[in-house]
Amino acid sequence: MSAVHIPLGPVTEVLMVSRLNPYLSFNGDARQALEFYQEVFGGTLSLNTYGDFGHADAPNADKIMHGMLETPGGFTLMGADNPPGMESAPGQPFSVSLSGDDDAELSGYWEKLSEGGSVSVPLEKQMWGDVFGMCTDRFGVPWMVNITESES
């Protein structure tokens, strides 16, 4: 997450900003794809598997639940393997991700984006601790909203 540092004399306040970026969906090869994109763009890649989040014995434990590549050029690319039972629609292996720690701002975006569309995952607290939801807006664009808890 990018941050803005505001000098306040001997104290520096760090403000988190909201981020909008593509989120790619894969049918089992997210690790290979994200490692390839790291080779192409450089940067830092972080990968979390389904096993990392308490599903160590599940058949998909080694599959990617969330991956994020942050590049020196300022690009952010996120992606994951589809969970079991969730098929990827041909020609639409992406979502647009909104993330940050401004609850009011991001919840407001969620309300507007989901109005007249369909909600596949309600915006609520998830097992990794963030508030998260997935919807498709009235124009057919899939969105993911993730609100992290502010560090006070």
TrEMBL record:
InterPro entries: Glyas_Bleomycin-R_OHBP_Dase (IPR029068), Glyas_Fos-R_dOase_dom (IPR004360), PhnB-like (IPR028973). This is PhnB protein. Pfam families: Glyoxalase (PF00903). It comes from Streptomyces africanus. CDD domains: PhnB_like. Residues 19-145 form the Glyoxalase/fosfomycin resistance/dioxygenase domain. The lineage of its organism: Bacteria, Bacillati, Actinomycetota, Actinomycetes, Kitasatosporales. Transmembrane segments: none annotated. It comes from the Bacteria.
